[in-house]
Amino acid sequence: MKNPKLLEINVRLLVRRFDVEDKRAKLPDIPFSYWKNLADLGIEIVWLMGVWETTSILIDRCCFEEYLIQSYNRTLKDWQRKDVIGSPYAIDKYEINPELGTKEDLLQLKKTLNELNILLMLDFVPNHFSAETELLKTHPDIFLEATEEIISTDRHTFYRPIQQPQRIFAHGRDPFFPAWTDTIQLNYYNLNTRKFMTETLLSIAELCDGVRCDMAMLTLNNVFGNTWGGVINEYLHPKPHDEFWQPAIAAIKKDHPNFIFMAEAYWNLEWDLQQLGFDFTYDKKLLDRLKDGTPKNIYDHLRADLTFQQKSSRFLENHDEERAKHLLGMEKSLAAAVIISTIPGMRFFFDGQFEGKKIKLPVQLGREPMEIKNKTISNFYEKLFRIIKNEIFSLGNWELKEALPIWEKDHTNENLLTWLWTYNAQHCLVVVNYSNITSQGRIKINSESFQELVILTDLLNGKEYLRSANEVYYSGLFVELGSYQTHLFQY
């Protein structure tokens, strides 16, 4: 799938919007019109975050630490204890949470979405399970076990599960942060673990069209070894010769050739994961540059190999990131939205982004605050989505352009980010002034197919501009844009 549009939805919050009095809604209660509206927008993949069953006994133990309580107070002023439902990333088992429905309900939803030409994506968390997962009874050996000596030096990272009190295991962790105490770490040097997780993926693939793989780089041999050196018993489980992902992805694609793998990835390991078979990897660097970088930083980022870019997931927000309007402000966030929506790769959006929501909610909460829709942002996204539904933005050829200076001492052309899409006889030139000052420049475009005049229609404002074919070819199209303003010229 080339340049798809994905929407992440926190499904545990979504169903609450359709509660009726004291009756809690489930997946079948989400009206067809909700999904039809997404299809009409042009959404091609829906990632339902938080479908899987979790372990309720961990809520009291792990979800009321001071920093979490502070985040609940900030984001949901009237929260109650019952609103805290635990992290969706501390999975007990890969079965649908009964509070959301049944396996049959999920399969019916997949069928409904597919009939609307929308693919269903679900979570896969390769690094860990819930700290009290039922798998401790049936498959304890797939987890990373530790010793008395190790736990005596670090009682935050290591623990004794209720179900296996005589044994010591590691909590899941990212090497740069403290362990997640509601999780148990899988041992990726253990070949049985790899086999079990591959079989888990095969079972998930029967229920959806793709998976978003949480912190996918944590299972890489070097990352895993560096994180858990001194804990792994390499006599029993020596470092494997190959990586987990390549054979695992190949096994799923053998039976489901169009199944989509998207990796949450950081630390410059995105390319490595693409080479192991991932269809898409997070592009967090672009978000960082849109937030804090210069237009030149962004331009340089977009000079990367096109093959890499086409497998990059471009986003402004998701459940881990601050809301775009809060992070960037309205004008800058809308300019950034044009950028991520009109460059190659996956265009990745988050539920609430189109309404201009400002509150980033902790994933442990099962109720969201009421926020008033921002009509300016909503109308902008509606117009933008109508534009990018054009097949030129999915099937066309993309070329990064350069805005040239108007005169020697004016360098504002460096604030203009510009690229050209071409498909059959269609052309669309995108120009974004990603700065807080009025900027101008000239952009050379090929006008050989035009005799005297080039007619450019700005798809965002509907205005037409007539320009000399010779001028745009030899001198370049003159562009002047105000702070964070945009042209989408069709010609």
Structural features, described:
This protein has 491 residues and is of the alpha/beta class. It has two domains: 5-394, TIM Barrel; 395-490, Golgi alpha-mannosidase II (Immunoglobulin-like), CATH 2.60.40. Helices cover 31% and strands 21% of the residues. Strand 19 and strand 20 form a beta hairpin. It starts with a strand and ends with a strand.
Fourth-tier CATH superfamily name of the largest domain: Glycosidases
Main pleated-sheet profile: 8 strands, parallel, barrel
CATH fold annotation of the largest domain: TIM Barrel
* pLDDT < 50 runs, ≥5 residues: none
Strand content: 15-25%
- Write out the strand line-up for the largest beta sheet, numbering strands in chain order: 1-2-5-10-11-12-13-14
Shape designation? globular
- Quaternary form: single chain
Helix content: 25-40%
Number of strands: 22
Number of domains: 2
State the CATH architecture of the largest domain: Alpha-Beta Barrel
Span between N and C termini? 26 Å
Structural Rg: 25 Å
Give the CATH level 1 class of the largest domain: Alpha Beta
Structural class assignment: alpha/beta
